[in-house]
Design a protein that fits this description.
alpha/beta, four-stranded parallel beta sheet, Rossmann fold, binds pyridoxal-5'-phosphate
Amino acid sequence: MITVKGKTMEEWIREFPDLGPVLNYTPFYWSNPYVEDNKTAFENQPLHLEDIQEAEERLKRFAPFISKAYPETENAGGIIESPLKKADQIKNRLETITGQKIPGMFYIKLDSHLPISGSIKARGGIYEVLKYAETLLREHQLLSEKDDYSKIVEDTYRKFLSQYTILVGSTGNLGLSIGVISAKLGFRVIVHMSADAKQWKKDLLRERGVQVVEHRSDYSKAVEEGRKEAANDPKSYFVDDENSKDLFLGYAVAAIRLKKQLEEQNIQVSPEKPLHVYLPCGVGGGPGGVAFGLKVIFGDTVKCYFAEPTHSPCMLIGMMTGMHDEISVNDFGLDNQTAADGLAVGRASGFVGKVMEPLLEGIYTVSDEQMFRLIAEVADAEGIHLEPSAVTGFMGPSYVVQNNPKITEEDTHIIWATGGSMVPDEMKEAEYQKGLQYKTNPGGK
Ligand SMILES: *Cc1c(COP(=O)(O)O)cnc(C)c1O
């Protein structure tokens, strides 16, 4: 008989009845019973506002470098940021599809269109590599905080940094972000890719001089290989997607930026006008970092929700059972097979799970069929292409409205669209065509 941590499936489901539908791959909304008011939730947190501000300051120091190294960021002064787009058309479509009215204003946060790597990973991944470069250059008296960091594009610095190796394990997008920025700085880079990783991401990295190691196994294994390789070499640095506080803080800076965008667009947030934010979740660092930052800045007036594939609900299972990274979806017989490559993670970050446990309102799961349909719906309604991982947020508002009668026209919903602009055109078209079939024939295959 299959047991997990000494309990049979029947025992697990008796203790946590919500596991039932989750273990059947049924799309499901889980309301987090462990959520606390902000004051209580922040009594014991390992990171604070000052940490996020420090990360924001570091990104400002690097802005002259980013602006010079990536001319597409020049207009934004070297700040890597994405637009916040009002999205009434897709809101109308979602109301029609789900039969659920969604009171409130509706926006998409377009991290899919972040410069440099076209996904949310351009926040955490790039930040961590920049911080490591800064640390090395300062340790060797090649840089001081007051310098104009644009000089880092020069060969002297690239040559110095080329003695060091950056390693990372990834399902694709993290490798893409880390690989691209590391190669730009002159680092040697080795990216361990899981079997889910898309060929075009590997090709693009190799073009930029990144060493890509392909694994036939899943994400956790790719991470383990990267970690092992780095452990043997003092000039190697491993970006640890499962535990890194720097990655997390890089993501959290999004909250400071979003606050400014909300003010610029005159979107008010208050106890009477709460903000609901829907974030796709893989290992947890990206959505966790953003949500953590939002809770630090907006407190109880922001409500955060994670979205996961029905085939990879690692954060949901970990948080629900309190077992976090001690269990994986495979332990429970789920296959971790999904078109949402960015979310194809079987075991959540224990660090993020524990941080988010008192801060998160809920987690819901989305099927691959729903993702493809949403790709077509979003493309038709809003004229933007998102990858499968990135559309999972859109299923959230109707669940949240069903579970919360207090939501009114004063509320604001923000769907965090986490990736897709860099997907090659022919793949965009194939994903769209597949989605169109579900859109025009919702019951069929
Ligand atoms: C990585 C990724 C996520 C989730 O981030 P995690 O840190 O893995 O939870 C969401 N969407 C896309 C497109 C991603 O690449």
